[in-house]
Each structure stands twice: as C-alpha cells, then as structure tokens.
Automatic annotation (TrEMBL):
This is Methionyl-tRNA formyltransferase. Residues 1-167 form the Formyl transferase N-terminal domain. Keywords: Protein biosynthesis, Transferase. Residues 206-306 form the Formyl transferase C-terminal domain. It comes from Streptomyces flavofungini. It comes from the Bacteria. Coiled coil: none annotated. Belongs to the Fmt family.
C-alpha cells in the first residue's frame, strides 16, 4: 500500500519507523514544526529528520487546512493515512481521502482517555492498566471504530516515564499488525461504546499544582505522574515554589490541617493530606526529595530542617 504519515514527537517517530520497516511505500510525511511548549519538548524524537534520512518528502504544518497540502495528498494517491500524535483536528477531506481512510494510533485504551496526555491522567486516576489503540479516524475526536488494542499493567510504583516507555514499545507492533490486516482485507472494525468515553485536555502548569486536600494516595500518584522529565508537581513553601520530586504514602496516619509540615518518618518528611485529615484517619504524603526554584535538588530531611509551618497551593 501507499501510505502517508501524520505525526509528531517520539510517538510519530516510532510510527514512521514501523512504516519504513514494513513492505509498504511511505510516500509523504506531514509533521508539526518544533515547539517550545514544555510538554512538546519531552520525548521529541524528530519525525522530520527520520523522514529526511530516508528521502521521504516532508511537509511542516501546525494545522492541515490549506489547499497546497490537500493537493499534495491527492497527488501521491495514498491507500491509507496513518496518524499518531497529530496535535490538531484533521478534516474529512483529508481523513476520508485514501481508499482505506485514516488509521489513528492513540496511547490509551479507548473509549476512555481520549484527547491529550492520557498516560498522565490515567496514572493520576489510579487506572490498573494503560495501552495503545489503533482505530479509524472519523469526525469525532478519538471515537472511530477500533481495529486493535494492546494493554500493559500499571505497577504499584510506576511513573509516567515508565508507562511511556512501556506503551511506546507497543506502537511498532500494533502499526505493523494493523497494516497487515488492512492490506489483507481481514480488518474487523469494532464501534466504540460512546457511553464509556472520557475526554481529557492538554496538561498545563495549573494541573501540576498540589492541592493538599487530596488524599495522600492521590498525591503520590500525581507526583509519579509528574516525574522527570515532565514538569514536576509543585507547591509553595514560605512563598516560593517547591517541586516534589519523590514521595510516597506515609506508613502512619497523621491528623491535623492539610499542608502541615509535620514529622520525620524514616528518610522522609510527612505532610498532612486529605480534606478530612482532622479526623486522624488519613495517611500523609511522605516527601523524600524536593527541588527548589533554582533547580537544586535536596533530600526532604535536609531541606525541612525543622518541623512546622505549611506547604500551600499558592504563595502565602
């Protein structure tokens, strides 16, 4: 088959590599220009550079609505478009152009976690597994009929970086298997149960701000979801931002006011957490490592020399 690829960052790079390694002919690659957005500088293997190394024509677009792109797509006569991590909506005159339509590869187990940053949101929410879905693109975001899915379990101490590495390794196999089914005429497309669908927005600075009224179990997952190289979960101490680099749920239960810098526990300092922390029935967040505004990392037991005071969502 003649294939056009739309994609960006490492997800798109892995997709393009799978296509280049296949028996199919990659006739054109469309990708986004480099971005200074914090999340788009992470996992930023260049689709454009990979295409250029293989002498595949490349078009750079932020959005795909111009006449030149459409005419170029028509001229290369694709049998299939494959998309992965394309950041803007594709119009029907593009996704319906090839005779086999457009195969989108999304890093969640659709219909849940459609949209953006699905691995981070899934980890924050305590999902037992994450994965990758290959589905047919239609006019609704990430809602087209499913061809294939692959899942991996979420471990008890997994970070978002761990889940990225596990799921990105699924891209090559799922792309190759999907194309084999489509080329052979044996693809079975299963409609999504739209009553189960959930859609998530792009992550921004506000989404990493710690709310100490959350239970410690939720805050532990937030810290692991915002691990390096992602922008870390953060709070404020004495009016200045403080990033939480490593933490866990405390062994003991601690009562009081959420955000209180309370007590040392082993190699950590426990922060009182939970809206009902006053009852003394809640665990705290045992903070092990922090990072100050200048980028210096500290053991929490070194940074918090004395107990007392509060961590706050905003400068106090």
């Amino acid at each position: 088959m003649r294939v056009v690829m739309f994609g960006y960052q490492t997800w798109g790079h892995r997709t393009l590599q799978a296509l280049l390694d296949s028996e199919h002919d990659v006739t054109l690659v469309v990708t986004h220009p480099k971005s200074d957005h914090a999340y788009e500088k992470i996992w930023d293997d260049s689709v454009a550079d990979l295409a250029a190394r293989h002498e595949v024509p490349v078009l750079l677009r932020n959005r795909p609505g111009d006449a030149e792109l459409l005419e170029t797509l028509k001229s290369v006569e694709p049998d299939l478009i494959v998309a992965n991590n394309w950041r803007t909506w594709l119009p029907p005159e593009i996704f319906d152009l090839p005779r086999h339509g457009t195969l989108n590869v999304h890093d969640s187990l659709l219909p849940t976690y459609a949209g953006f940053s699905p691995l981070i949101w899934a980890l924050i929410n305590g999902e037992p597994e994450v994965g990758v879905t290959a589905h047919r693109m239609d006019a609704d975001l990430d809602m087209g009929d499913v061809l294939l899915q692959r899942a991996v379990a979420v471990g008890p101490r997994d970070t978002a970086a761990d889940l990225f590495r596990a799921t990105v390794d699924l891209i090559g196999p799922i792309v190759r298997d999907a194309l084999d089914l489509i080329a052979a005429g044996t693809a079975v497309w299963t409609p999504q149960d739209r009553s189960r669908a959930s859609f998530f927005h792009k992550r921004a600075l506000e989404d990493s701000r710690i709310d100490w009224t959350w239970p410690a179990e939720d805050l532990d997952r937030l810290v692991r979801a915002q691990c390096d190289p992602y922008p870390n979960a953060f709070t404020h101490h004495r009016g200045k931002p403080l990033r939480i680099v490593e933490a866990a749920v405390s062994r003991g239960r601690y009562g009081g006011t959420p955000g209180r810098i309370f007590i040392r526990e082993d190699d950590a300092v426990v922060i009182v957490a939970g809206a009902d922390a006053r009852t003394g029935h809640r665990h705290g967040l045992a903070v092990r490592r922090v990072r100050t505004e200048d980028g210096t990392e500290h053991a929490a037991t070194d940074y918090f020399r004395t107990m007392g005071g509060y961590l706050t969502a905003r400068p106090s």
